[in-house]
Design goal:
The chain has 244 residues and is an alpha+beta fold. It contains seven helices and seven strands, in the order H-H-E-H-E-E-H-E-E-H-H-E-E-H. The radius of gyration is 21 Å and the shape is globular.
Length: 244
Amino acid sequence: MAHEQQELKRSVISTVSHQLKTPLTSLRMSIYLLLDEKIGPLNPGQLDLVMSMRDDGDRLADIMSDLLDLNRVSGRNNLQLEPRRPADLIRAAEERFRAKCLDREIRLETQVAPDVPDVLVAVNRIDYVFDNLIGNALRFTPAGGSITVSAVRREDAVEFTVRDTGCGMPPEVQAHLFEQFYRAPGQEPNSGVGLGLSIAKEIVTALGGSIRVESAEGQGSSFIFSIPVTGAKENQEKNSAQWV
């Protein structure tokens, strides 16, 4: 029954999100046409209203995208898994954020231990995890700070860490970070609806790993997630069978 309810929930979310996608896309296109003044100039008051409409439209689009991502990550069986070198995953993430970090005057550094083995991942999904964690670090790290993305081996898993020198957070905030729709106090209204970290957790869990945060106010934050190395799950099952 629980499985059927979960499937029904996923179906409803998917249907509603796709039904909203077309009219929202049309509205956003109209708004951008107004801002381009293709059909006539806007006075200052009208411009402010249309820009507010644009921001709200973009935020709705982001919410729908997050809902669909959360809906898609429902289990390991729905992921297309393939082996990847941790160094390649981190290098790709660094390239996606290099320009943004330069603009913000934040150093982006990478550290990959030489003995780190391949991990079995869904590339487009693990990219989301890196992008969410690095994006959050960028948002809360002031100019002159740094973000470090690293990977080390921990037994049958690779442990990835995204560490920043930002403002950090108290324990009461850390306790709720991975909950759906949780937004830490003091965040800007356009910073999202609190789904990013819960989606990241769903992805990591679906890949057989785990995620946690270590932080202290004024001392930055470290988001640490582990992914099993290629063949680890199969070896565990084989060893278990030998003991039966």
